[in-house]
Amino acid sequence: MQNQVISKKDLAGFVDELIKSKAAGEVIGIKTQGNKFNFGSLKSAAELRLDYDISLLPPKKYFFPQTETVLKYEAGANPRVEPVVEEKSMCIIGVHPFDIRGILLFDAVYGGNNPDPNYFLKRNNTVIIGVDCLKPNPKAFAASMGTAATDEGFDLMLTDIGDSYFVTVGTTKGENLLKKHAKAKDAKGGDLEKRDKARNDALKNYKVSLKMKPEEIPALLDANWESKVFHDKSETCFSCGSCVMVCPTCVCFDVQDDMALSLKGGERYRRWDGCMLTEFAKVASGENFREHKEQRFRHRMYRKGKYLVERYKYLGCVGCGRCATHCLAEIASPAETFNLIKEAK
Amino acid sequence: MVMQLTPKQSIHLPRIATVARVDTLSNREKVFEFRFDDGKELGQKPGQFVELSIFGVGEAPISVTSSPTQKGYFELAVRATGGVTNKLHTLEKGAKVGIRGPFGNGFPIETLKGKDILFVAGGIGLFPLRSLINYVLDNRKDFGEVTTLFGCRSPLERLFIGQLEEWNTCKDMSFLETVDTCQDDSWKGNVGVITTLFPKVHFNPVKTYAIVVGPPIMYRFVIAECIKKGLADDHIIMSLERRMKCGVGKCGHCQINGLYVCQEGPVFTYAQVKSLKEAV
Amino acid sequence: MKPRVAFFDFTGCEGCQLEVLNFNLEIVDLIGAVDIVEFREASSDHSEEYDIAFIEGSQTTQKDVERVQKIREKAGILVALGACSCTGGVNALKNRFPMEENLKVVYGDAAKYYTTIPTRPTSAYVKVDVHLHGCPPNRNEVISLVKCLLTGKKFELCHNPVCVECKLAENVCAFERGEFCLGPVTRGGCNAVCVTAGRKCWGCRAPVDEPNINSEKELLAKYGLTVDDVLNQFKLFNGALEVSK
Description:
The complex is a heterotrimer.
Chain A: E1 4-7, H1 8-21, E2 26-33, E3 36-41, E4 67-74, E5 80-83, E6 90-95, H2 97-110, H3 117-123, E7 126-131, H4 142-145, E8 156-160, E9 164-169, H5 172-181, E10 185-186, H6 191-203, H7 217-222, H8 228-234, H9 242-245, E11 253-259, E12 265-272, H10 293-312, H11 322-326, H12 334-344
Parallel strand pairs in A: 2-6, 6-7, 7-8
Antiparallel strand pairs in A: 1-9, 1-10, 2-3, 4-5, 4-12, 8-9, 11-12
Helix pairs in contact in A: 8-10, 8-12
Chain B: E1 15-24, E2 29-36, E3 49-54, E4 58-63, E5 74-79, H1 83-88, E6 96-103, H2 109-112, E7 116-122, H3 126-138, E8 146-152, H4 161-169, E9 174-179, E10 190-191, E11 208-213, H5 216-228, E12 236-239, E13 255-256, E14 259-260, E15 267-269, H6 270-274
Parallel strand pairs in B: 7-8, 7-11, 8-9, 9-10, 11-12
Antiparallel strand pairs in B: 1-2, 1-6, 2-5, 3-4, 3-6, 12-15, 13-14
Chain C: E1 4-9, H1 15-21, H2 25-33, E2 35-38, E3 52-56, H3 62-74, E4 77-81, H4 83-87, H5 99-107, E5 130-132, H6 139-151, H7 162-168, H8 193-196, H9 213-222, H10 227-238
Parallel strand pairs in C: 1-2, 1-3, 3-4, 4-5
């Protein structure tokens, strides 16, 4: 597959064409929200902002909505139950490489032995047009996590090389969309170097870094279960769940029933849940297996640094900086905790 | 990554089952016999659990108490503690529920074949263990010596009393029972916590597996007794309780360290549990 | 038989009852599911027979206390509806001043005809089975409680701080907008309605089970506020609660 170059003007044309033709379903992209950025439905290419740092919520919300009905039932003497699975085609424009890594983890979690149709009937019909993050968030540390770039998980990947975007083609689906709807040209000698230079320069813009190789985190955690860092850091935790709600690798959910007032039937839905919330590990008998905020804080750090990567091969933290940005107590950054543990040794 | 799926494969979709029989076990526990409306078997292994749905209330993980050797139906013994289980206790014969599963690994039957077995059940820990005890009794020739210890808080909390009497007189298995305390003289048997039964049992630790199920506090003391008797860590097998919400390794609620109880558990060896800081 | 529901109003703005009336189409379903036997804002019916009593407003006179105690005797389930009943709410602001002064300011020369007592939550006088927090309470939570009462399911209050719903709603954090917000220590269940509307959380739904008050004080201090500012903010809705002391 031949990589391409597209002028900024022609990229806008491509986006408008995708919106108009609905060739890849609903077009979603990065827009401003207040003084922040977030993913939303695009009405025109003019709304699209590819020079952003992070979105408020990661793009996982399109495959794994905040609240999602999964069953409908009629109650009573002869209950009838049927699955509710929303199927959707979309094209998401402007996904950063670290967020793509988050999606790859999601694919592994929601696939596996018990694949989840609610996830895959949205995910399978999604075109991902990524964009390299050249202006990272001040709390981000993707460079040192090795997640600032990715060679998988996208159909097309854009890199700002000045007047135009370098387009790394990831799939035939992406290539065909480009051929049919965009005025792009084959990349020529020098273009690839421009892309790589842009990517390399961006690495220098990361202000926070993990002071070890990411592969070393599991062993570091293995040796430091009793570390005082977990206690000290969690002292100011609000147990507010912000860190887990905004995380591109937090996959957990709660399941609840909602019965209609007529009592004739209702719905079962799932909603984002997270291990930093007080009730997460509580069982019906009242026992709470992670009663203290220190236990919850440690569990989250182990999930980010060890459990997920050991189970699914993809890192449980992609260094996007969202948790650190949203945490009012300023304790959520995994890099900071891992660094502190290492320094304390 | 493309995974071709249809809505019918929903991980949340239960099968409808009907309550065929309800028996009261004590003031807080009942046992329910279920039959699937499509006539199929549950196909569980002893030690596995199901997700029980009561539509409008929710879902709860419940271990299966009947042995797969009993065909045509399965039983769930349930203490009324949460929303779903309290509602279940109000259901009568003919009521319909949803069932997903069976889930989890179950007890390692192949490992246990030809071995001596020491069952240790505390309180409602008897519910999951009963599936294996009955399985072993129904396939008696496949196993060596079998001993069962059962302890509960008071004579009023004894469960499956008819079955306990059967086990007490059954020649295929030695059976010892105790209650923690008894205020009156209604109880003629042993009094004291379950570990007080240990001096009364003798087994060859090399060819014996202990299978222990009970409340979290019981594990620490029973495991110590097992080790004192010379059992190796991987010969002590236990079943752990967590909040298995989805049953299929997605929702994250049942994690013990890096393991999902609904996937790698609920049955673990003490050798595994020892390396898990969050287990007991 | 359908459960009989009664609404009783005490000291408050009656906005909680108004919120119930605002259910739109769901009010029709609600009327189908329960018998509303007492609801001053919507009906002239009166009844002495009821299963579920919703208490709106706080008790600010000795007569109020006796009345709520009588209601408690008759009600199978007693629900504190809204901030005034749950925590004392805005009414508890008067607790900062001597009661005689309050009477004088409000009634002037007529003060001698009135009495008043410090505002306390309804639970200070009678056993409250369910607290439906908020100023006003969240209508979905009210409906959800009724559903639970009808189905026998246990009603669970939201245990999470407002931040959870605020993140789910994709709001820009109020702190990021330069506001100081009580969301991190306040019980959710409101869908973060105030922050979503561009405001901040004032804590009308009372603190979560384990509020990290020290951390909130540190946080507000970081935003240049004094301990008094912080306490004043807490006390707007939670003046009668221990946590704001």
